Automatic annotation (TrEMBL):
Signal peptide: none annotated. The lineage of its organism: Bacteria, Pseudomonadati, Pseudomonadota, Betaproteobacteria, Burkholderiales. PANTHER family: DUF985 DOMAIN-CONTAINING PROTEIN, RMLC-LIKE JELLY ROLL FOLD PROTEIN. InterPro entries: Cupin_DUF985, RmlC-like_jellyroll, RmlC_Cupin_sf, YML079W-like. This is DUF985 domain-containing protein. Residues 7-144 form the DUF985 domain.
Amino acid sequence: MSRHRFEELISHLDLQPHPEGGFYRETHRSQERVERSAGGSPRSAATAIYYLLGGEDRSTWHRIDSEEMWHFYEGDPLHVHVLQPHGALQTFRLGNPLEHDGADFQALVPAGAWFAAECTVQDGHSLMGCTVAPGFEFDAFEIAQAELLLEDWPLHQELINRLARK
């Protein structure tokens, strides 16, 4: 990736820094409101964002209380790591399957799962979209502390520490 293309995407799409890392802009917030089975205030039925990671960026370990579908748009493949119950790890390779071996255009992160993402090419970039249903709210967004994740996923210490907030 050229630094020029990365900056061009940030400018053209009007992206802003995201608290988890990378850059984003909300592109849709449904006017329809839904009640959550877990209670709490009604929220938008769905939200969508553009999300951009450069090769050095990462989406640090975090979780939300809704399902999140990642959609690949452009650039290099991305790994989305999802910590599963009972110490397991699932890694999705998000990318263009016609150009990137083992990649899929979409990856679904279950509600409540801890997850993180990283580009697979150091000087590359990945542009994607993320759709959340019920819709994303920052008050339902939590960034993980590596020490707490390591209690349940000690076999993945290197990955957890590498993608943890510094």
